Amino acid sequence: MALRRTFALPRQLLRPVARSSLGYYTEQRNGFATAVPPVTQDATGSKGPTAMVFLNMGGPSTTNEVEDFLSRLFADGDLIPLGRLQTYLGPLIAKRRTPKIQKQYADIGGGSPIRKWSEYQCQEMCKLLDKLNPESAPHKPYVAFRYAAPLTEEMYTQLLDDGFGRGKGGRAVAFTQYPQYSCSTTGSSLNELWKWRNRLEGRRANESVDPSGSIQWSVIDRWPTHPGLVEAFAKNIEDQLKTYPEDKRDSVVLLFSAHSLPMSVVNRGDPYPAEVAATVHAVMQRLGFSNPYRLCWQSQVGPSAWLGAQTSDTVMEYVKRGQTDIVLVPIAFTSDHIETLYELDLEVMEEANSPGVKRAESLNGSPIFIEALANIAQEHLRKGEKCSRQMTLRCQGCKSDRCLEQKKFFAGEEAASLVVGHWAYIVCLLTCISVNALLLEMTNQTNSSVDADVGGQLRSRPVVPAQNHPRNTGGDDPKDPAQLHVHEQTPLLQRTREESDDEGLDTSSQDSAALNAGLWRSRTKASVFWLFPFLLLYMLGFGGAAVPKINLMVSLTCRDYLAERASSDPGFTYLPVLLGKDNSQCQIPEVQSLVARFQLYYNLVVGLLSALISPQLGHLSDRYGRTSMIAVSAIGTVLAEIITVIVAANAERVSLYLLLLGATFDGLGGSFTAIMALSTSYASDCTISGKRSVAFGYLHGAIFTGIAAGPFLVAILMKKTHDIMSVFCSALALHVLFFFVVLLVIPESLSKEQKQRAQEKHQVKLAHQEDVGWLSMTFWNPKKIIAPLAILFPPAGRPSTLFPNRGGASPALRRNIILLSVIDTLHLGMALGTSQIIIIYAGYMFGWGNVESSIFVSIISSVRVLNFFIVLPIITRIFREEPREDLVISGSGALDVILIRVSILLDMIGFAGFALANHGSLLILSGVVTSLGGIAAPVLQSSLTKHVPRDRIGQILGAKGLLHAIARVIAPSICSFIYSVTVGKFSQAVFVCLSLVFGIAFCCTLYIKAHGK
Asked: 99-104 long-range CB contacts below 8 Å, 24 or more apart?
């Protein structure tokens, strides 16, 4: 019914007086309810109307209503579960308890004031809401109680009579007056509302289509830590504390009391205890933790186990110990009713028999509280959401079909997470189909090329059996690096001459590339511009999900730590960890240390597997094509993202360590580093040597543009959706798109003949080699992994791989190569090692969340992009050095040496700035400085290639690539370990260490001589 009328409370409830304990019993009875101010209507009319329906348990307004109230209460299995005997035991218990409860209501004035307070609060809120949100005005107030008048069916009938529904449509908001959600309270009220909606307006067709012209419902289902609610509670507590002598005020115990729940409900996974604890913590945080406090529970009914400790027992124990100054705070109630006026005031305080035991005023008509209600409703209406994300998650042990259907009804399209697993199954099914398609394509290539062509070509050459063949004749011993033949087409990871020497390579043959890959791909010429836009999309997904993934790890680690601490310390309470939110309770050293340790495990899994897999993908790409292997690598990323989505969607139920399965998938695909290496090979295949540096520039531009723009787009997405799942799903969609485009659309860069030639040479190599099994020690010999690094240490004065001439390398060239390789590896390793630590550190020191961290990453990545595309080209053009015609090997130019030294110095200053920053803006400034130092990466690579003959560039870059793979494993592990053992003690230690490392690197740059002199 529309509640636009004045009313008054019983006379004995209108006189506000100071509260004490047993000796002042009469004053307690008469003074706990605040008088209701007169109601005036000041609506601002607009397109509405909108029905605002307050949901609550309710209470009998007169003693004659007590029996009906108890009958409905004990018949509700959501609140008091009695099993199959509910129908029989409920009425029996209600009838037996009626006389006793009637006397209790008589003692507080003849009935509960909850209806009148609820009607007043709803009316006053609607008046404010008309002004705050005029577009949905007028807002009409209604109250629906679960067990007393006005009952839900009465309210719904009144809604229909007032012009809502019945073909007229209209919007209604179910606003629970239980700040903390419980299936026994809010859930039960929503079940009742859903039941009467179906009875009075009809069920949805096919569970999705509402009857024509029916009421459109949304739900405000919880608000335990809303600032207005917290402020209202804090203000009432402060007012009560002022009644104590000033010298005793700080020692008064604040005893927060909430309605208890049966342990069967708690063990089912009900969120109520955690949300009540969250309210308590927020209130104490607002009070500055000025007083000792505890949380206890009241209103236990029946012999079964209920959540404790009980409020009455707690007060008695403290009074016995001499702690007689106690303020009771009804933290889960929004107005006075039987639990406050009788149970706390007349039972608990009477039994305590101490004038120091008092109770804080209930929220009742508090202007602060009513304004908070209006703000909550305004935010809900403007968001246009059906319900909170939390409501779509069922309790772990919930088996109620009614609960499921009710949640589906109110959640609408947001109910997808209620059936978590179905969409993930579909994505996995599509992934499996894609993998099968990929394997089928590779099989077809093998059948058509190897069987049809290689066999005939092999027959034209004499093949000596392995056991009789004079192995490695002609000085081509692969164990001797000085005998390896390399040229500009050599892949980044070195191979023997038989496998890598491709004298017949002709870039003009691209028109015949990928003839067996479909009509579209066979008629399209390969180009770096085919790969560039889709690689950019891939990096947008990679860069955008990086920060939210780190914060997901922080949230899950924090949740587990706080839960474990609470289980070992029953007195410990904490705010619930909300996924995708800024959880200030997680910014503690213990959590930071655990996160850094997990990051160590995660990086080790990805790094080690990718270091082993990446070279194999490079070999396979020569025989089966670049796009096929890029797709293989992309499928690893897709699977890893699926794991991330599953973990984020089921954060309440799954373990943090499931993310390591995603790391395994990512590593088995070679991670993004393998995709970049294979993309570089693709660009090399379809670009002439004179324009290859430009093509590489496009690919690196895609990397850093994606890393820069990804976090920025995530920040926008988060501000709009307020849902972290949208970020992970978007990243997954981008990676799935990249996989299918690479597999089905982008033309292959290698022609059919080139792949056939590579397969033929592989067959010849296998015929000349001994069969080395997986269990052989030779297969697992670590020397096979690090053998390519030998070329970085050329002997001076004698021939070597890089310098096969008689004189070999000069001492100056040898020194430059070693120093440049070491500095380049340190530079990359430190960048990888701190990329995640800096996000965790910023969250710990400055309370940054997803949005702030994403903006930070976007800023420093944008500076890096500007460095590569604007600053470096301008500097190179202005200070360009003429090539030295008198030198076959020019060595580092003077400009190269200066740029390297300045960049390393900027890195040293930037990391020192990280350690000294005491504000977020200084941290951003330090990040910009380190980004400017990022110019060292391309200059180091370019300078290194100037120290070797032109036909040896591929091999030295291959060795450098191996160093990068090793750095990716070692550097993040060391940085994570340092941070995990120093956080909270000297959290800046990792940045101090890195600044010192760059200081040493800067000293090393002083020994690099221009032109190898």
From this structure: 101/66, 101/70, 101/338, 102/63, 102/66, 104/338, 104/342
